[in-house]
Structure formats: structure tokens, C-alpha cells
Amino acid sequence: ETTRWILLHYSPFKAFWDWIILILVLYTAVFTPYSAAFLLDEHGDVRQRRCGYTCNPLNVADLLVDVLFIVDIVINFRTTYVDQNDEVVTKPVRIAKHYMKGWFPIDLFAAIPFDLLIFRSGSDEMATLTSLLKTARLLRLVRVARKLDRYSEYGAAVLFLLMCTFVLIAHWLACIWYAIGFVERPYTETGWLDNLAEQLGKAYNDSDSRSGPSVKDKYVTALYFTLSSLTSVGFGNVSPNTNSEKIFSICVMVIGSLMYASIFGNVSAIIQRLYSGTTRYHTQMLRVKEFIRFHQIPGGLRQRRPAGGAGHVPRVCRQLLEESGDNL
């Protein structure tokens, strides 16, 4: 029995709401680092002062995400949970205490609209700080990862999640790689952004903020570099030149070696487990055929099939094998 405005944690609405929050968290995991890195050089402060906060579609989407995250906090305060005695707790006071001691600080920090609080600050440093604070939303990925443990028993689902994790980490590292080049570009002309501008024939002009390669060119090149580094390919056409870029490349190589050993090692084990049943069945059938051929079983017994279907070893052959001491 539940009181009014108490939501059961296994109700259809809660399952539907969890999927909405999962989609929002994935959106945050992709677009928050992108906006924090690749949109730092987008000088839109004047345009924002003219048309307001809603002139940028990303700002509207971020505001909507913040509102839904706040609604999720309210829902979590009214959602039942299972205690240590495997009993469903429905009392609001106990639910609130449990949530306050658990995920409430992370959810609250991830739901704060930092960009809206310090809007119109007029400072590039504050804009950079806002972009960095918005990455706090990524803390919700820890909670999502725990919810995805229920799919660990499905090999195909684990394989898909591992590949998505690999691409997501490469995306994050690409954003960091571009941020390093963007910060160092005013002080040096040997960075990877200047080399990219020279290769594409789009040189930077300090008097024109729109000069240089496009955001699309810079993101694709950064993602290409991180993926080639993580997979230990490294063609060398995009290479680090400054000390900061070289240090970051070393870190990417170390991360890539660990990811290659963990993710792709698990991929091999999952693929082997997916085909283990088929391999075991063919091995057993091969041994049965060899047994039939060796003992010259009559043709009538060879064609018999059990009621369970062709996937089962015939009972006569199984008994003969057990009597001969050959265990399947």
C-alpha cells in the first residue's frame, strides 16, 4: 500500500521516465563536452545580447534538460525503493532520507543551470568557466552505468555498450584535444590547428574571428586523431607538435592501451561465448557420428530423432556412449 503521490519504482511510468532521463544523459554526454570545447571560439556574445538567451538552440535544449533533471529530483523524492530486508519502502520520510544520503548531491549539482545563472556576464573567462561547470552533468553517467548492469548477462547488449563507450571516450578526448590547440594557438604557430589550416588552405587571420578551418573540419580531424591513437594506428598525418599536445598524446596512448586490453578483450570473450553453444553442439554431434561409424549402428537407429528435436543427441547413442565410458 502506498500513500498519495508515492510512485512505485517498478511502475510503467517510472520505467518510461528512466528511459527519458537516459536519453537526456546521453545527449548531455555528447553535446556538453562539444559545446564546452568547440564553441569556445564562437563569438556570439553580441548576438545574444540582441536576441536574448533563447537565440541559441543549444541554450534552449540545455535549459530543457536542466528543467527535466530538476523534475527527476522531485520524482526521486517520491519513488519507493527496496531496503536491505528486501522490503519495498513507501514512507515518504524514509524515501527522502535514503535519497538524500545517496544520489541527491550528484543529481542536484548536475541540474544547476550554470549558463543561465551567469548569463550576460560579459567575460570570456566566465563563459569558459560556465562551459567547464556544465560538464558536471556527466556525473549522472555513473548512475546510468549502474542501471545498465542489468543487461550484463546479454552478450550482444554488452558488446553494443562497450563499443558505444569506446566512441564516447574518443569523443571526449577529441574535445580536449581541440581545447588544447585552441588555448595554445595565440602563443605558437606550430600547433596542430595551424598545420590543419595550412593543409586546408584556410589560414587564420587575427583580425577576422571567422577565419581558419570550420568547426566541422576541426571536430572531424580531432576525432580522427583520437580514434587513430586509441586504436594504436597513428598514421601521423595529424601529429602533436607542442609540449602540451605531446603530453596529451602520451595520455591518450596509455588510455588506449588500457581500453584496447579491456574492451576488445571482453569483445573477444563475448563473441566466443555467443558461439560456444553452437560449437559445443557440433562437437557432440561429430563424436556421435564417429561412435555410430565405429560401432556400425544399424541404419534404423541412425535416423531416429528424439521428441525434443534434432538439437538433442539420440537417447540410444547417449546410452551407448555412457556404457562405453565416453562421457559427452
UniProtKB/TrEMBL annotation:
It is found in: Cell membrane. InterPro entries: Ion_trans_dom (IPR005821), K_chnl_volt-dep_EAG/ELK/ERG (IPR003938), K_chnl_volt-dep_ERG (IPR003967), KCNH_animal-type (IPR050818). SUPFAM superfamilies: Voltage-gated potassium channels. It is a multi-pass membrane protein. Keywords: Cell membrane, Ion channel, Ion transport, Membrane, Phosphoprotein, Potassium, Potassium channel, Potassium transport, Transmembrane, Transmembrane helix, Transport, Voltage-gated channel. The keyword Magnesium does not apply. Pfam families: Ion_trans (PF00520). Coiled coil: none annotated. One of its GO terms (molecular function) is inward rectifier potassium channel activity. GO terms for cellular component: monoatomic ion channel complex; plasma membrane. Its main location: membrane. The chain crosses the membrane at residues 20-40, 156-180, 247-271. One of its GO terms (biological process) is membrane repolarization during cardiac muscle cell action potential. Residues 16-276 form the Ion transport domain. The keyword Transmembrane helix applies. This is Ion transport domain-containing protein. It comes from Periophthalmus magnuspinnatus.
